[in-house]
Amino acid sequence: MNFVDAISICFKKYVDFSGRARRAEYWYWTLFTVVVSICTSILDAVMFPHNMWSPLNAVFNIAILLPSIAVMVRRLHDTDRSGWWALISLIPIVGWIVLVIWMIGKGTDGPNRFGNDPLAGEQRAPAPAAAA
Q1: What is the DSSP letter of 27?
Q2: Nearest of 56, 89, 67 to residue 17 by alpha carbon
Q3: Which 8-state DSSP code applies to residue 21?
Q4: How many CB atoms lie within 10 A of CB 67?
Q5: What is the DSSP letter of 112?
Q6: Contact 85, 72 (CB under 8 A)
Q7: Which tens digits make up the pLDDT trace of 74-125?
Q8: Rounded distance, CA 19 to CA 112, Å?
């Protein structure tokens, strides 16, 4: 999965809280949201220098709120955890650390109670042959 695939999947599954999400899908989505948030903040500073709030950034953050929660829930499902574990992020510092560790971790192999393994149907590229 590449960056564009991950972003398109997250927008296609805008409010889909079922199924599983691979690590690449989650982390590419996170990268996308951080980069675009930085860009909208810069645009807000240039376009609205005397405003206390950032209108472009606010609109973007509202637009990505649901797909961000959905991809987090699907990523938790991939680690065989309920999506309700996302609420652990409400615990300051410790909750975020635990959540990041779970998001970094490998998903369960094979099907689990939330669906089939998203990596199972993917064909891996063969390893390069050693030079003789």
Answers
A1: H
A2: 67
A3: -
A4: 20
A5: B
A6: no
A7: 999 999 999 999 999 999 999 999 999 999 999 999 889 999 888 876 645 4
A8: 10
Among candidate residues 2, 7, 53, the one with its CA nearest the CA of residue 34: 7
Annotate 30-55 with DSSP letters as a single string: HHHHHHHHHHHHHHHHHH-TT-SS-H
CB 78 within 8 A of CB 118: yes
**Tokens standing for residue 20:** 């599983």
Helices 55-78 and 94-104 meet at what angle, rounded to 10? 60
Distance CA 110, CA 116 (A): 6
Q: Whose structure tokens read 């609205």?
A: 48
Q: What secondary structure, in 3-state letters, does 51-97 show?
A: CCCCHHHHHHHHHHHHHHHHHHHHHHHHCCCCHHHHHHHHCCCHHHH
pLDDT at 50: 87
